From TrEMBL:
Protein name, as recorded: Large ribosomal subunit protein uL23
Key words of the record: Ribonucleoprotein, Ribosomal protein, RNA-binding, rRNA-binding
Family: Belongs to the universal ribosomal protein uL23 family.
GO cellular component terms listed in the entry, alphabetical order: ribonucleoprotein complex; ribosome
InterPro entries: Nucleotide-bd_a/b_plait_sf, Ribosomal_uL23-like, Ribosomal_uL23/eL15/eS24_sf
Alphabetical GO biological process terms: translation
Function: One of the early assembly proteins it binds 23S rRNA. One of the proteins that surrounds the polypeptide exit tunnel on the outside of the ribosome. Forms the main docking site for trigger factor binding to the ribosome.
Gene that produces this protein: rplW
GO molecular function: rRNA binding; structural constituent of ribosome
Subunit structure: Part of the 50S ribosomal subunit. Contacts protein L29, and trigger factor when it is bound to the ribosome.
C-alpha cells in the first residue's frame, strides 16, 4: 500500500462499534490486502493516537433480495483497533456524544 488514505476506507458505525468505544476499541473498514502493521501505522498517523492492538476479520456476504432477484452483499475486511488508555479518536467521540443526546 502506498498511502495511509488507501489503507483505511471508512469508520464502521454500528451499535456494537459504539459499545466497543468505551473499551478504547475503534472499528474501521480497511483495504483487503492491508496487513495489521500498516493498519496500525495508518491509524496512528491519521488520528495521532498510540495503537496497542489490531484485530482483523473478513465480513462474509449476506443474502439479499430485491423483488424477484436474489444476490449477495460484498465481502470486506474489518479491523478493530485498540488504542492506548486515556486516548480517543475525535471523529468517533463527536458521533458518540451526538448519539447519546
Amino acid at each position: 500500500m502506498n498511502s495511509i488514505y488507501n489503507v483505511i476506507i471508512r469508520p464502521v458505525v454500528s451499535e456494537r462499534s459504539f459499545d466497543l468505544m468505551s473499551q478504547g476499541k475503534y472499528t474501521f473498514e480497511v483495504a483487503a490486502k492491508a496487513p495489521k502493521e500498516e493498519i496500525a501505522d495508518a491509524v496512528e498517523k491519521l488520528f495521532n493516537v498510540h495503537v496497542l492492538k489490531v484485530n482483523t476479520m473478513w465480513v462474509k456476504p449476506k443474502n439479499k433480495r430485491v423483488r424477484y432477484v436474489t444476490g449477495k452483499t460484498r465481502t470486506w475486511k474489518k479491523a478493530v483497533v485498540t488504542v492506548a488508555e486515556g486516548e480517543q479518536i475525535e471523529v468517533f467521540a463527536n458521533q458518540q456524544a451526538a448519539a447519546e443526546e
